[in-house]
Amino acid sequence: MNKRYEARKTGWDSTRIQALRRHLELTQRELADRLGTRQQTISEWETDMYRPRGASATLLSIIAEQAKFKYTASPPKE
C-alpha cells in the first residue's frame, strides 16, 4: 500500500500530530514554520479543534516520511 494513501487513510489526528512534532523535537512554532502556517493552527490541531486537510495533511505526511516517523498508538489500558 502506498505510504501517502496510508497516511491519508489513517488521517492526522491530534495524538499523531503531537507525536510527530515530538519525534522531530520541534516546538509548535517550529513545526508551523516548516508547514508555512501559524503556531495557533498547530495548537488547534493538537487540541482536536480542527484537523489538517489538503496541502497541510500532505506536507505532514511528507515530513513524517522524510523523518522515518512510524506512528503506533499504545494499546488501550484495561
Shape from CA axes?
A: globular
Cα-atom Rg, whole angstroms? 12 Å
Query: What's the CATH topology label?
Result: 434 Repressor (Amino-terminal Domain)
Structural class: mainly alpha
Main beta sheet: none
Q: Output the number of helix runs.
A: 5
According to CATH, the homologous superfamily is: lambda repressor-like DNA-binding domains
Please name the CATH architecture.
Answer: Orthogonal Bundle
What is the CATH first-level class name? Mainly Alpha
Strand fraction band?
under 5%
Number of strands: 0
**Series of secondary-structure elements, N-terminal to C-terminal:** HHHHH
The low-confidence runs, each spanning 5 or more residues with pLDDT under 50, are 4-9
Description:
The protein has helices at 3-10, 14-23, 28-35, 39-46, 54-66. With 78 residues, it is an all-alpha fold. Helix 1 (3-10) packs across helix 5 (54-66) and helix 3 (28-35) packs across helix 4 (39-46). The N and C termini lie far apart (32 Å).
